[in-house]
Design brief:
The protein has 3 helices and 2 strands, in the order ααββα. The protein is mainly alpha-helical.
């Protein structure tokens, strides 16, 4: 099954490069998995953590939580640069790594960002 048939044409804000690395594709897959299972996961977490409910019900909710795949855990989502896919040095406000942020700021492509001088 190709990525185009799975609906990966608009790669959720990533740059317009000719090829996408496996890290970016994995990040997109994890983000979609988290959003698809968020409501079910929250309901099961509520049941598992509610101490007023009977223990067998809480235990079954815990077992059901363990059946989720690793691509549905919210902690697996990593902030990546939208231009390069780099996972380190990413500025959350702009969604860019430090190098791309500097290049775009110097080129004047980021509104309200200027080089400091004193």
């Amino acid at each position: 099954m190709s990525l185009a048939s799975q609906g990966y044409q608009a790669l959720s804000g990533y740059g317009a490069g000719p090829k996408y690395g496996w890290r970016i594709l994995r990040d997109i897959k994890v983000r979609r998995g988290v959003t698809e299972t968020e409501a079910q996961r929250r309901a099961l977490l509520y049941i598992a953590r509610n101490t007023t409910l009977p223990a067998p019900l809480r235990h079954s909710a815990t077992l059901e939580l363990n059946r989720f795949t690793r691509h549905t855990h919210p902690t697996a989502v990593k902030n990546r640069c939208h231009e390069t896919g780099r996972g380190r040095g990413v500025m959350r406000e702009f969604g860019l790594c430090r190098h791309e942020f500097r290049m775009k700021a110097l080129a004047g492509e980021l509104n309200g960002v200027i080089k400091a001088s004193w």
